Amino acid sequence: MDSNGGLLSSTTSHTISAGSLGSQNNLTAVSEGYGLQASSPTQTSGGPISIKSPYDGSSNNVGAIGSAGTMMADSSNTPVVSGSWTFNIQAKASYNAPPATDYADTLTLVATADY
Question: pTM above 0.85?
């Protein structure tokens, strides 16, 4: 979950938007945006863990980060032992975005288990 709706600069009050929840954004095709990609799911047994769309993008395709919970990965209700995956955050500022050193966001990640 994203607390600011994007990367917020408190100094300039400008936000690089995280986009709409669940959409896939090609950062090359937009003037400004912010999102994440998940990759490299592994587990020692069980699963398998799979990355859910739109977070399984490559290159500059990112899944939007929203203010409500969104599933990034899943094991289809199959138990997983020592599961993990990585994610990277990508952002693109428009040419007229005010420069600042304080663009920030707070992301909350929650892992849940089914019993």
Answer: no
